[in-house]
C-alpha cells in the first residue's frame, strides 16, 4: 500500500509534466499563421517569441467560450467559423477582417494582409470592450485635441517653431505632422493613412508595401485606416497581449505621468502605490475575475477604473469596463474641474462665450454638455463601492468631501490667475482673444496655462488618489500660490514698461 | 531500507504540507474577532483577506515571546492575559485598549470599538518601539509645523486662497482644516477628533458611529483620540503590517519624495538604490535580525535608519531603532543645515532674534536647543558602523568630509539668497517682518524659500546618500546658482520700478 | 521496476542537491584570498557575502575559458598562470596587477595591495571590453568636462559660491575639488591620487594606508592611480559584479536621469520601459548570449547599446560592445545635436570661432571632428538591426525620420534662444565672450543653457526612445517654447531698465 502511494505520487508528477508539455507544444495554429511564422521567426523573431508565450497562442476562441462567463476574457458569444478552432495568430488578426482596411491592406506572399490591427479587428472577439471604449473620452482623443480650435491653438503654440528678429519673437505657422505625431499625438493618436506604395528588398526578394503616414502610433484615439478609433495595443502591447501588463500601473504611466496629468506620479507616492511597489511582486495579475484581498491587496489603476473585481466569496464589486470614465463624476483635468462631459467627443461643446470649452473662462460650467448631478451620484457610488471593499463608510465619505473641496479651491486659484491674465489683456501687457491673437503664446499666458494644466490638475489628482506630495510641493499648492505672485510681478513690470514706452512715444510727438 | 527512505521522504513531504495547512487553517482566533470577521468578510472583504495573510493572524503573542530575543518582533516581556493566546485580530486592536479612546470608542454590535488604532494601542506589544518613536522628531510633526508661528505662516501662504483685485493680489485669511489635512498634514498628521455622531444604514440595519474630524489620516505625527502621537500605519500599513513593506524604500517615499525632502529620489539614483532596484527582488525582507550581505546586499532606508542589522556571524551592527534620527548628527533639512535638535518637539525653540527657528536668518545655530559635538560624534559613529559593514574606513571618512563640506557650501548659498531678500525688504521691494508681513507670500520671498527648501536640501540629501543628480541638475547646485541670479534680477527690476513710481509720485508733488 | 524508478527519482534529487552543495562549498579559492577573507569576513562582512554569491567566486578563469565562445564572459584567450585555476577573489584583483598602481599600492598584512581596482586590472580577463570602452566617449568624461575651457566655465558657474554685496552678485573663484567630486565628477569621474599616508587603529593593531584624494568615486571617466581611465564598477558594482545588474535600466539611471540627460526617465514612460517594468521580473537577465523574445521581450538600455543579442535560432543580431556609442549616428546631447564626434576625447575639438565646441554657436557643425555620413549610416544600420528584431522596416524607418526631424526642430529652437542671448550681449543686457566674461553666470544665460541642456535634450531623447511625455510637457517642447518667451520678456525689461539707467546717467552729464 505504501509503495502504491509513493508510486502514485511520482506518476502524478510525470503526468502533470506531460500534460503541460502537450498543451504547450500543440496549440492548433492555422496553416496561414504557420506560414507567417515560417518567415517571421527570422524576419522579426522577437514578436514571434513574444506571441508564442501569450494566451492568444495557447487557447482557441472556441475553448475560450467554454469558460464560465465570470472567468471569460472573450466577450462575443460566437466567433467566425474560420477562427473558432485555431489559436489567434498572425493571420487571424492581420488578415481575416482586412476588407474594411481598404488600401491599407495589401497582397503579401499570397495573403491579403493589413499591418495595423484596429479596435474593430479586436472587436471580433472583444466586442463589448470595443463598444464600451467608444464611449470613453480616450477614444476621441484625436478630435478632442485637433478639432477643438482652442486646444489646437495650444498645440500650435507648443509645437510651432519660434524665431527672434532682434527685438521680438515670431511664432511660425505650424503645420508639422511629424512633430505632432511624436509629441501630443503620441498619446492622443495619429490619423494613419496610406500615402502611396514602397518597394523593399527582403529576404524573399522585392516586395511591395503600403507607405503609411502617421505610423508608428499606439495612441488611445488613433484613427485607423478602417475608420475605427483607438488602438487596443496602447494598454495591451504586442504581441503578448498580457492582462497582467494592462493591470500594472506602468502601462497607464506612458501617458499619465507628465506634469499635465500626473496620475502615475501621484499613485507612486500614495499608500496604494507604495503597497503595490513593496508587495506587488507576489500578487496574481492574471486571474479573471480579479479577487480583492486574495489576488491583490491594494488597487492599481485598473482595479478602480477597468477590471472585473470580486470579493472572496465571488460577489461582484465592480464590473469590467473599458469606458474608464464611467466611475468618474468629475473631469478633474481642465482649465477648471467640472462635471464629466456627457459625450466622448468633446469638440462639439460650446460655452456661452462661444468657445469650445466645457467651462467659461470664469469657471462656470457649460452644463448642457455635462452629466447631471444624478449621473454624478451614480458614478460616485460605483467608484465608492470599490473603496468600500477595504475602507469604512466614514473614510470613503470624507475622502470624497476632501476631493470636492479641493476642486473648489483649485478652481478659485485658477480664477485668480485668470483675472491677472484678463487684466494683462485689458491693459495691453499681452494680446488675447480681443486682439484676435493666441491666448497661449506669450510668457504670462504660458504661466496661466501652468496654473491649471500643471498645478491645479496635480493638486486635484493628489486629492483624488491620496498622493499628498503632488498637493503641496511637487507641482501642487506651492506652485499654485507662487505662480500667482510671479504673474502679478510680471504684469506690474510689463505695465510699467508699457507706460515708459507710451511716455517715450508721447514726448517726441509733443515736440512736433 | 531503500524503500524505507523513499517512503520517509514522501511522508515527510505530506506531513509538512499538512502541518502548514493546519497552521494556516487553525490560528487561535478569539471569539470576538471571529464575530468581527463574520460580518466584515462581507462588509470590507479586502482588509479581512489582507489580515489573514499577515503574521498577526498566524502567531499569538505567547508564541511570539518564545522566540529568542534576537529574532523577536515583540518588545514587551508579557502581554495582557486576554491577548496572550489568541492571534492579534480585529477585536484585540480595536477594542481591548479602548477605554483611553474616550468618546471615539462606541458600541458596535455588542462590542466597544474604536476605529483608530493608535500608537498607544500598538505599544501593548511593541512598547520599546513606541517609546523610541516618541523621541523621534516625526512624532511631533504636527506641533512642529502648526504650533510654530513661522512654519504656520508658510502653511498659510501655500494653502491660503489668493485673490486679485485688478492691481494687486490678496492672500485671504487661511483657516481651512480640510485643505491642510490633505496637503501638509497628510504627512505631518492631523488631529483626529470626534465631532458628533452619525447614523448609517448597514447590512445589519441602522447603526450609530462617531463622526470623525481629521479622518482619514496616517501622518507620522497624527494626534490620536487617545492623545497619543503618531500612527504606526504610516509605515506598517493595514492590515498586513508587513515588515518587508516597512523595509522597502517605497514606504518612506510617501512623504520623502517631494522637492522639499527628496530622500527617496536621491536614493533612486544612488548606487545603493540601483542595486536594490536591480537585485532586490531576490532579497529576504522578512528576516529578523536582518543579515547584511546574506539577506540583502545594499541598504534601503530601513537598513541605515531603523532595522536590527547583524553580520554573517550574527554580531550586531546596528540596533533596531524607531527614533530614526538617533544616527543623524545633523538636521539637513531647514533654512540652514545644523546640529540635530535635542528634543522631538522643535516648536519650543527660540533663536536670538526671538523667532522659533533653530538658526538665525544668518545661519548661526541656536545651539542650546541642538545636540552638542559629542552627541554628534556618537551619532556619526553609529551610522558609520553600518557603512563600515561594506566600506573601508577611508571611504567612509571621505564620504562624511564631503557631506560636512556640502553643508557649509549650501549654507553659504542660502545666506547669499537671504542677503538679497534682506535688501529687498530694506529697500521696499518686498515686505517682511519689519513691516509685520508674511515672509513667504511675495514672489521674491518664495524664490528665497526654494533656495533652501528645495535646492539646498536636495543638494545635501544628494551628498549624504550619494545621488549626484540631485546635487547638480535635478534641483541641486544648478538651481542654487540660477535662483540667486533670478532673485538679483527681480530685485533690480523691482527697485527700478519703485524708483520710477517714487519719481512719478514726486513730480506731480513738485508741480503743486 | 517501478520501485527502481521511484528510487532513481529520489536519488537523483539527493545527488543534485549534493552536487550543488559541493559546488557552493568548494570553489578553489587562492590561499591569499582565503587569508583576506579570514579578516574581512569580520572587517567588511557585507562585501564578503556579496562576493560569495557572485559568479566570480564560483568559476575559475580556466573553467570560464572552456565555455563556447558565444557563451563566454571572459574575452582574453589566456590568463596569467597564477590566476587561471582559482576563482577571482580579493587577492586576484587587489594585488596581482598592483605594480602599475605605483604609490597607491601598499603593504597590508604581508601582501601588496591596491585599494582601487582599475579598468586595467579588469582587462586581465576582459581585455576586449576594456579596449572598446577606451573608444567610448564615457572613458574620457573627465577630460571632456574639465579640460574643455567652455565646459569648465559651466562647472565653475554651477559649483562656485556666489555672494551678494547689497547691489550685485559676485561669483567667487572656484577651485573646490570636494564639491566637484560629489557633483559633476560623481558621474564624470575624479582623479584619484595618493596624498600621503595615514595610520589607523584596526582589529589587528595599527596599520598604515595610503590617503586617497578624489576617493570614493565610481565615475565612468575616473582617472585611476595606474593612469587608466574608467571604473568598471560604474555599471558592474562591487562585489557581485552581476550581469543582470548591468542589464537593468536602474544601473544607467544613476547618471542618466537628470534633466540634462533624462534617458532613464524617457525609458520609464516609453512602451519598452513599461513592458520591462510590468513583465521584466520574469525575464532572464543572466543568459549569455541574450536571446531576444526568449530571455526578454522588450529592450533595456543594454539591449540596444551593449549586450550580445541573438535571435531564437542563435543568429547574432548585435555584437557585445562596450563602446556604447558605436550604434549612435548622432550626439543628441549638446548645445545643438550633431554627428557623433570621431574621438572619445572631445576636448581636442575647436570650432571656426576657436571655441572647443563641436558646433558653432549658430549650430553649424565642426565637421572635421565628427563622423562622416557613411559612418553615420553604418551606425544607424547597426542600431536598426536591433529594432528590426521586433518591428517592420516601415516602423523603423519612420521612427528614424522623426528623430532626424526632431533634431532639426530642436536645433532651430536653440538657435532662437541663442539669438535672444546674442542680442542681450550686444545691447549690454548681459556680458558674454566679447566682454571676456562667463557665458553661464547671469540669469538670461542660465535660461539659455536650459533651452539646450534640459529642454532640447529631453525632446531629442524622447524622440529617440519613444517617451512622448518628455517631448511635450515634461521638460520638452512646452518648455522650449515657454523659455523663449521668458527670455524675450527678460531681455525687454532689462533693456528698458538699461535705457532708464543710461538716461539717468546722461541727464546729469548734460547738465555739466
What does it look like?
The structure is a homotrimer of 512-residue chains. The first copy, chain A, is mainly alpha-helical and 512 residues long. The first copy, chain A, folds into two domains: 108 residues, no CATH class; 262 residues, Hydroxylamine Oxidoreductase, Chain A, domain 2, CATH 1.20.850. Helix content of chain A is 46%, strand content 9%. Chain A has a three-stranded mixed β-sheet with strand order 7-8-9, with helices on one face. In chain A, strands 1-2 form a two-stranded antiparallel sheet. In chain A, strand 7, helix 17 and strand 8 form a beta-alpha-beta unit. In chain A, helix 2 crosses helix 3 and helix 19 runs antiparallel to helix 20. The C terminus of chain A is likely disordered. At the A-B interface, helix 1, helix 16, helix 19 and helix 21 of A face helix 1, helix 3, helix 10, strand 3 and helix 11 of B.
Strand content of chain A: 5-15%
Radius of gyration of chain A: 27 Å
Largest sheet of chain A: 3 strands, mixed
| CATH superfamily membership of the largest domain in chain A | Hydroxylamine Oxidoreductase, Chain A, domain 2
Count, helices of chain A: 21
Keywords summarizing the entry:
3-stranded mixed sheet, homotrimer, two-stranded antiparallel ribbon, 512 residues, disordered C terminus
In short:
The structure is a homotrimer of 512-residue chains. Chain A has helices at residues 2-25, 31-43, 45-52, 61-65, 81-84, 90-94, 119-122, 127-134, 141-146, 149-159, 177-182, 184-188, 243-247, 249-253, 263-269, 271-279, 301-305, 373-387, 393-426, 443-465, 477-511; strands at residues 105-108, 111-114, 162-164, 169-171, 193-202, 205-213, 290-291, 309-310, 316-318, 330-331, 338-339. Chain A has 512 residues and is mainly alpha-helical.
